[in-house]
Amino acid sequence: MIDGRVEGNEQAAVNTFAKIEEGREGAISFLSNPKYTHYLYETKSSVVLINDDLSLEHPVQTTLIRVKNAYEAVARLLQLYESMKPAPKGIHPLASVSEKAQIGTDVYVGAFAVIEDGAVIGDKVQIYPHTYVGQGVKIGEGTTLFPHVTIYQGCQLGQHVTIHAGSVVGADGFGFAPNQEGYDKIPQIGIVVIEDNVEIGANTCIDRSTMGETRIHRGVKLDNLIQVAHNCEIGENTVMSAQVGMAGSTKIGSWCMVGGQAGFAGHIHVADRTMVGAQCGVIGNTKGNGETLVGSPAMDPREYFKAVAYWKRMGDMARELRELKKQVEELKANKI
After folding, report:
1. Among 81, 82, 143, 150, whose CB has the most other CB atoms within 10 angstroms?
2. CA 335, CA 182: separation in Å to the nearest integer?
3. By C-alpha distance, which of 37, 59, 52, 42 is closest to 6?
4. Cα 108–110–114 angle (5° rounding)?
């Protein structure tokens, strides 16, 4: 399954997973980060996955399995482990499911979940307790909504989408028009569309569009506490760490990687395969070609770290400037 090569006891048996530094008998661990290499020689785990090119400096007690990429291999095994857990089924008697909703086969609806009129729920969907599915919502096969998820009316979720606890899909976008007395609310009449194989972390909010749709393309992975504003678009297989914020109508390309707490100004386009560092502030369109950005405002890493070097010297430079100014004044005075 993981195309590995065994070194050691080929009959070693495992029944659980463990971090390499917390290894124990019967556990399988993995080593991919060189910082943890020293644990390989002392771990109690029965089996450890390692990269094929790792050279041993000392003998090991554990059985090794050499693979092309240990991190990918353990991910595959964890997926297998997760798939073996029995999926809950059936509609709890305390759930509120409209007679006008369409419910597929092998669906689970937990206690106090609500499914409104016109909702279409695909086969093998899991809707955990206290989750709300609004009018006309469409949910594709194999999707999972964990507790306290809210899906507002009209939104569409594809197949095998996972949304973690507390997330909100389809709340109003932040649209207000100023007047002499305050602000007039601009009705948000669009929807959110989430395509197949998307995973959304806990307490993330994706706002519905003013008109048209806010769209999350297939394969996107969003961490916890992310804000996606109205009319935004996130391209295929883009990943974002926690606390990223996107202003309205921002378009982010495919295969981008965005670090935690990065922010995006509205109405900009971020090209495919752009790498955005943590706490980066992107205020304009990006160039593309696998560009990497850091800092705020966002810039090329070389320029950023050059600027940081100057910032660190600002105190010394200010003192030197004051001293030079003093010397110039003295020269002027002596000349007179």
Report:
1. 143
2. 63
3. 52
4. 100
Residue with tokens 């602000």: 183
Beta-strand pair 16-17/245-246: unpaired
Measured between alpha carbons, how far is 172 from 152 in angstroms, rounded to an integer?
9
Q: What is the 3-state secondary structure (H, E, C) of 15-48?
A: CEECCHHHCCCCEEEEECCHHHHHHHHCCCCCEE
Q: Please tell me the predicted confidence (pLDDT) of residue 87.
A: 86
Phi, psi of 217 (to 5 degrees): -75, 170
CB distance 228 to 170 below 8 Å: no
Is the Cα dihedral 56, 62, 66, 71 positive or negative? negative
For the purposes of burial, counting CB atoms within 10 Å of the CB of 74, is it exposed (0-12), middle (13-18) or buried (19 or more)? buried
pLDDT at 313: 87
For residue 219, the SS3 value is coil
pLDDT (0 to 100) of residue 332: 86
List, for the chain, all residue ranges whose pLDDT scores fall below the cut of 50.
Answer: none
Q: How far apart are CA 250 and CA 56, in angstroms?
A: 48
Q: Collect all residues with Cβ–Cβ distance below 8 Å to 75 and sequence separation of at least 6.
A: none
Q: For position 336, what pLDDT does the model report?
A: 57
Is the C-alpha dihedral spanning 17, 20, 21, 27 positive or negative?
Answer: positive
Enclosing H/E stretch for 335: helix 314-335
Tokens (6 digits) for 326: 């003093």
Closest CA to 231 of 279, 278, 267: 267
Q: What is the pTM of this model?
A: 0.87
Nearest to 199 by CA among 264, 142, 274: 142
DSSP conformational letter for 255? T
Residue 315 pLDDT: 87
- Of 111, 116, 160, 151, the residue nearest 135 (C-alpha): 116
58 tagged catalytic: no
Tokens linked to 124? 């093998």
Pairing state between β 257-258 and 144-145 = unpaired
